[in-house]
């Protein structure tokens, strides 16, 4: 469904301060897959995500969504940023925030309300309808952002380190929430994170990036059984192996041994 | 950089939603938001560029502001000449600047400038002498704050120009009136800003000092005042603008010696270009004073978090 | 701090109410037998206030003053927001316009009155035009800056959700810039009052400002004081109204700042 081909991004190209953030990235994401993108700090993860989302034009290469080239924010895609306090609108209530992208979809008032209600319920925020985002905790705000993305009914969901600003326990809850929602709505997910445990826990495949100028270091299959569980899955020896593998892959730019 | 720090640009020590005062509706807050102060007394230029880049934007297109100024002057040159505005009442810019240079060269400009500045300085100085200590006092003593709250909030929006007739009655039409009016008007911004600045001092900072055994006078000097200084300096900037306005207005309405009076005389005697030249001079003085104060503010607050951001 | 103890807080609120009343009473008492020319007894002033402003001179002086004020102010704010949004969206235009706006903003507003008299005469039109001119710049400055400083994350979010440009303007850009626009509008309000009063003192045959100066010239001192009181009340009421509106419209802003702080 999503094809990234030889993406390259140079900031301030042609000037003395040109900075090649992304050198050459290629990978694909299949329908209904959950792919995590990990890499060391400064590896251009956010740059990559913005290019996929059509918010940043690449210097070379292209992104194809369902074989259509991405030149601007594609309609079938929804984004969840890391900094929820900067992406939720403080002058709108939770309900208005979630309903905002639905306005131009011409769904009719009743349908929209129901959709919003459903989505809020599935993220566990049924009661926060008329609250303002800043009245909620960080974890709840991030749920609102997720709800907003879901209500939009995208085919593919991009998440840029969405749980980085949240405490560990809330993060575990939110990770499980993403898994539930994916199972329920069948949406494809591209999830950027720097948390290796999280990447292995959530994904079907992990794309490991090298430091800048960024390339695909390698792509790791994660054949752990589903449904995943915070305790049981993480007790499996395979989990530890995969986790270690990914870790080494990030820390040392040469390829490591493929696990048995 | 979070959004909240962007709004309170210069002042990370922005007050919390509702004042620390208990119970009853908090009084209207003064312009502790730097953007409010910038609207009163423009300091640094607008640097809020859409892509957020500071130095990058400033280096490219440095000629843009100059182009803007040139365009404005051009408009004022062309409009009267093509007859869109009557040139007897709005002469072309070249005539205005010609009159300006003439007045500079023949020395007739300096006396009124100094007279106006004298009113400004006396007003601002008096205001500082009165409002700073008073503000510190009121801000530090809760009961005093509560006692004076209503009075201050009521007197604060009084337009000082309303007192012009009173001033001329009591002080005549000379320097004393100017001084009184400018001082009265300039007292309020400094008083309010100082007051709230002192009240908003981080209690943790104070308690730290107290736990180290630092006594009250030194705490005042080394913790309270520095902490409140962004507020206070904003107040000084606003007060400066206000003192200038009142000084010039007194000259205009009462005929006290100074630029305002000269402007009136120029109009009445038909020296139209001279009148505009004097108006431009007054604007330059106002603008120049703001720039000076902004620079002073930046120097004095170089340690403050917001300044560090700005200078990146 | 010690002020958080309940008895002190109660005492504080009590003082807040009692002290102003006490001071007013003190003023009334000490001035009661006053023979001072400049400071007549407070009660005389109250009497003059009642005679003049309730409601004899309302239509001849108060209404014209207020009409000029509101008209000029409204024109300025609307124009400044519209133009400010346009300029703030273009970095180039914003930077071009900046020094000119800063300069015009720094001119002490009353000195423009003689120019105004020359170009526009001494009628209400001149006053409205001057008030509008003077009130325009602070709001413009803040509108430009407010629009230019809209958090890019908010814009990007809207773009990625396919929100059309027009809706982005009204539901993202304007609300985001609103706090700053209000700050500018508040300053403009004070300037509007100043300009209203001074322009009436210098070039008018009616209005509150005119009345106060005229009373002084004819030595109707109590009447003059009553006019000053009225202007004080006017200033207070306008400010209070403004804050009421601001608090309502920007309800979310105070909460958001407290939350993020």
Which terms would index this structure?
heterotrimer; A: about 260 residues; alpha/beta; 9 helices; about 25% strand; B: about 300 residues; mainly alpha; 14 helices; about 70% helix
Uncertain segments of chain C are none
Major sheet summary line of chain A: 10 strands, mixed
| Helical/strand content category of chain C | mainly alpha
- Tally of helical runs of chain A: 9
- What is the helix content of chain A? 25-40%
| Global structural class of chain A | alpha/beta
Tell me what portion of residues of chain C adopts beta-strand conformation.
under 5%
What is the helix/strand order of chain A? Answer: EEEHEEEHHHHEHEHEEHH
Annotation, overall tally of beta strands of chain A? 10
Approximately how much helix is present in the residues of chain C? over 70%
Spatial extent as radius of gyration of chain A: 19 Å
Compute the separation of the termini of chain C in Å: 20 Å
* Overall strand count of chain C: 0
Number of helix segments of chain C? 11
Arithmetic mean of pLDDT of chain C: 87
Assembly of the depicted chains:
heterotrimer
- Secondary-structure element sequence of chain C? HHHHHHHHHHH
| Large-scale geometry of chain A | globular
Strand order of the largest sheet of chain A: 5-4-1-2-10-9-3-8-7-6
Arithmetic mean of pLDDT of chain A: 85
